[in-house]
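Subject: sequence -> C-alpha cells, single chain

Hey, anyone have a minute? Need the predicted structure for the following. Not urgent.
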Amino acid sequence: MIVFFVIIVAYSFIIGRDNTLKVILGTYVAMVAADATGILFAKYFGGSEFFMKLLKFASVGNEEEAVIFVKVLVFVILVIMFAVRGAFEVDTVDDSSSIIRLVMTLLYAGMSAGLIISAILVFISGVSFIDGGVQTSEALWDLYNRSNLIRSIITHSAVWFSIPALAFLIHSLQTHRAGE
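Reply:
Had a minute. Here:
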C-alpha cells in the first residue's frame, strides 16, 4: 500500500499542483460513478448464466467479489480518463513563494493519494457510497489486520474523503482574496 501511495505522490509531482487538483476533483466524480456502475452491474447481471460464466472465466469467487472488481476497475479507469482527458481545467494563481508552492504541491499530492487509496479500500470493503450497503469483505479484514497503514486509512477514511475538497475550497477562497 505504501508503494501505491508513493507512486501517486510521485505522479502528482510530475503532473503538478493544478493537474493534481484536477485528479482530486475527478476522483470524487469517479467514486460515485464507479459505485453506481457496480450497483447497476449487480442488479442487471447478477445471477445470470452469462455472469456466472464470466465469474468462472475471470477466476472470481463470487458475485460480491465481481461487483467489487467492477467498481475498482471502473474507478481506476475513470480517474485516469479524468486526469488525462477531463474536459475541465484547474488554474491556481502562483503568487506565493516557491517554497509555499512546493509545500502545497506536496500536500495536494498526499491528499490525492489518500483519497484514491481510501476509495479503493472502501470499494473492497463492500460499502456503497450511494445505497449505504455495508458488507465488509474477508479480503479487507485480512489486509486490515496485517497492515497498520491500511488500518489507519480505513479508520480515518472520512478525513481522507473530506480534507482534499475542503483544502481546495480554502485555497480557492484565499487565492481570490489575495488577488482582490
